[in-house]
Amino acid sequence: MQIIECPRDAMQGIHEFIPTEVKVEYLNKLLRVGFHTLDFGSFVSPKAIPQLKDTQEVLAGLDLGVSNTKLLAIIANKRGAEDAVAHKEITYLGYPLSISETFQQRNTNKSISAALEDVAHIGGLCVKNSKELVVYISMAFGNPYNDPYSLDYLEQFTDVLTTLGVEIISLSDTIGIATPVQIKSSFSLFSTVYPEVNFGVHLHSTKETASEKIRVAIKAGCERFDGAILGYGGCPMAKDELMGNIDTKVIIEEIKNSCNTQLKLDMGAFKEAENYASLHVFGKYH
Could you tell me the pTM of the whole model? Predict the structure, then answer.
């Protein structure tokens, strides 16, 4: 099981600028936990996400010798990808590709067809620079804009990505509307049709429904899970009211209970990171 901790997603919607040194301290605490991957920052325009304008400075301050955790950076265009691949410390580039035309425009200011051109170009950059591309299919379980959506449409979308050579796809519920039935249907189908693809899930959810959604995804064959400590965050491009991420602790507990698996995580370091997040990051900046 791969757990991806997403402080970047949790921080990006906060209006007050979190000092670089605070971000570095928090991320270094997360690195000590032993997550598979840390989604630490974004190579995007500061005008779009001002909170993450210091990503390169943050990267320079990370103590990468304390764990084997891999780093993931979000990019939204070719220029951002070119900046990201220049850093040897980064393993994964994450690209947000929406199944909703409206949200693709809101999120990256381009059409789905233009975004697919980006995916093709960025995939080539990743191969050339020994990086791995993760494509996040946002609005993968529906959208609030009345854009077309169905499981068949999602499968067609996935077909295009696999044709472009994408091997890691994260189905993303950007606004928290996925039902357990949808999650089960999607992962049961895709794990059979696309055995060569590593499918993950990036869910936003209320606390009341989070555990069931993760439990269903595990049983349907998902092995890659995104979370954020204490369930903070949300996508500021989606709608005015943000729906938080799923608390990483929920994911850890569901994996333990459903798979009878002991994850190789330092839970003492996890608690320290959780306390720091509560007191010095999300409890302080709004």
Answer: 0.94
CATH number at residue 11: 3.20.20.70
Asked if residue 186 belongs to a domain, the reply is yes
* DSSP character at residue 44: S
**Is residue 286 domain-resident?**
no
- Residues in CB range of 257: below 8 A, 6 or more apart: 215
Q: Which two tokens stand for residue 251?
A: 């994911």
Please give the tally of structural domains in the chain: 1
Give me the domain span that covers residue 239: 2-281
Task: Give the C-alpha separation, 235 to 54, whole Å.
Answer: 19
Taking 3-state DSSP, the helix, strand and coil percentages for the chain, each rounded to the nearest 5, stand at 45, 20, 35
Pairing of strands 168-173, 70-75: unpaired
- How do residues 41-92 score in pLDDT, each as one tens digit? 999 999 989 999 999 999 999 999 989 999 999 999 999 999 999 999 999 9
Size of the chain in residues: 286
Tokens of 213: 């959604």
* Pairwise CA distance, residues 179 & 150, whole Å: 13
Task: Kindly report, residue by residue over 203-231, the tens digit of the pLDDT.
Answer: 998 888 999 999 999 999 999 999 999 99
pLDDT of residue 234: 55
pLDDT of 241 higher than 60: no
Tokens 């040897």 -> residue: 88
CB 232 within 8 A of CB 9: no
Task: Please state, in angstroms and rounded to a whole number, the distance separating the CA atoms of residues 1 and 152.
Answer: 27
Reading the block at residue 122, the tokens are: 């960025």
The token duo for 228 is 């954020």
The DSSP output letter for 223 is -
